[in-house]
Specification:
By secondary structure, the protein is mostly helical. Helix content is 98%, strand content 0%. It has 1 helix and no strands. It has one helix at residues 2-124. It is rod-shaped and about 175 Å long. The model has no long low-confidence stretch (mean pLDDT 92).
């Protein structure tokens, strides 16, 4: 009888220990699942951050290339402006030269007319 009581108490203690072990195992399994989910969430977040970084890097490179192209275009426009200014100055000089020649021709024409008029008046007298 004492043996059966000891055996009963032992069985009850083993059952309690087994239930406790099951509970601890279940709790550990849940904690492991939670840790795995957190780890996966952090991995996903890092991947999103990495993708954002790569996208921003590409955009930065695109902006840099656009800026470089704009600078080159500006330089080209500046060169064209200089060329046009040189052409403008050359044309203005040609216009001034033509105006001087025109003035000289007008003066010669006026002189020729007055010489002709003077010569015509002397032959009439």
């Amino acid at each position: 009888m004492v043996l059966s009581i000891i055996l009963g108490v032992l069985v009850v203690l083993l059952a309690i220990a087994y239930a406790y072990q099951l509970r601890v195992t279940k709790k550990q399994s849940e904690e492991s699942a939670d840790l795995l989910r957190d780890y996966q969430r952090r991995l996903d977040e890092q991947q999103r951050l990495f993708d954002d970084y790569q996208r921003l890097e590409k955009q930065f490179n695109s902006v840099g290339q656009g800026y470089e192209k704009a600078l080159l275009a500006f330089d080209k426009l500046e060169e064209e402006k200089q060329t046009l200014n040189q052409v403008k100055e050359a044309l203005l000089k040609q216009v001034q030269d033509l105006q001087q020649v025109n003035g000289q021709l007008q003066a010669e024409l006026q002189q020729a007319k007055s010489t002709k008029n003077t010569a015509g008046e002397t032959t009439l007298r």
